[in-house]
Amino acid sequence: MTDIPFLSLAIWIPIVGGLLALASGSDRNASVARFIALFTALTGFAVTIPLYTGFDVSTSAMQFTESAPWIPQFNINYSLGVDGISMLFVLLNSFITIIVVVAGWEVIQQKVAQYMACFLIMSGLINGIFTALDGVLFYVFFEASLIPLFLIIGVWGGPNRVYAAIKFFLYTLAGSLLMLVALLYLFMESGGSFNILDWHELKLGMEVQSLVFWAFLLSFAVKVPMFPVHTWLPDAHVEAPTGGSIVLAAIGLKLGAYGFLRFSLPITPDASHAFAPLIITLSLIAVIYIGFVALVQTDMKKLVAYSSIAHMGFVTLGFFIFSPLGIEGALVQMVSHGFVSGGMFACIGVLYDRMHSRQIADYGGVVNVMPKFAALFMLFSMANSGLPATSGFVGEFMVALGAVKYDFWVGFAASTTLIVGAAYTLWMYKRVVFGAVANSHVAELTDINNREFVFLAVLAVCVLAMGIYPFPITEVMHASVTDLLKHVAVSKL
Description:
- There is one protein chain.
- The protein has helices at 6-23, 30-46, 49-53, 87-103, 112-131, 135-144, 146-156, 161-189, 196-199, 206-223, 232-239, 242-267, 269-274, 276-295, 300-319, 324-355, 371-384, 391-406, 408-416, 418-433, 440-443, 450-468, 471-489, and strands at 63-71, 76-82.
- By secondary structure, it is mainly alpha-helical.
- A two-stranded antiparallel sheet has the order 1-2.
- Strand 1 (63-71) and strand 2 (76-82) form a beta hairpin.
- It is globular.
């Protein structure tokens, strides 16, 4: 194991780079801010690569650990580490940051330095969430990450951006306050330790477990977001700029799901089993009901936003059937959704930059004037529908298989609703892309330029590579998932 603090570098390089971009000044120096942001994003991703290449897949123990006293009188430490569950999301987050910087390169013309700084700082804070092993450190990163996204939606968003930003902030903050209460209780119950791994070994009674489970559930469910606390997401997506939608879908929604695996399941295993039927029911409602809601949307962004809720329903379903197939499939789905939803929102952003409309009815026949774009958009649409040989298929198939083993009718309900996913995605694609050129505005569209082709093609390669050969992803998480299931299976009562 190397002495290089890769996790700290993954956190602080983007944050420092964001501050440097912010210091570059006004929009007269916009090109300076852009290049600082690109260099920082590339460097931030480069320092995460050794996390994968040097990762020991045979152990479930935390790796690349770092620890230093932070507030010693309260036993609060700057403690970091990754396992096979969290490491993949550090890489995904750092990779998506590059995509966002490139995607906003020409589109953002005002407050460029501030825009780039928000994304870079948020990237560092999110890496902190995925690597924190101290409860207070996790909470600080978890709450601080709200601020840049709040600003991104509120400053660079659409006409109703202030409403969407405040709704997003209030929903997520209210849930997090309950998590803080649970963290303080666990601190007292563990004899004065904020170490998350120490909390995993606590022997809590069923009544206490239930209260702690609900405190975590109400916090993480909003972030996922689960039905019925999902209503903030479509508003946030519709009003956010393209980069904000990409990060929110690709990374932001994963924070709540990660919280279930790091807190809810290992700390409250008996309560997790007891309330599993409720979570499974809510997950199926998300998959089925929200799928039909997506089917009637007229706004492309809102349609993909609702599809994200349905896809994350598969994630929470996979977690609470307590099987290796279920949890590993859910993790694969989380990584895949990062690529696929990122690609979908990027494609919608490309159209919006040209037409300044997200209404499906305003389009038609785009393939006639944007053939390269149409080909890439089709790949992402197929992946969003769960087509085999794309990343969208792998995770959903694993979760569906695990669900069938858990209960045939649960698996049947989850699997058949994939038809709805294909229906709303492909119907949108057909109305936007196929047919004759719908109007003069579509006729004047120009195909994607080299910059747009690069970031869309990179995402497309990731979607195909993961769909054809997912083993490099599943291999990393297997030991950690197996250990988690052993831990959850043993009752602490």
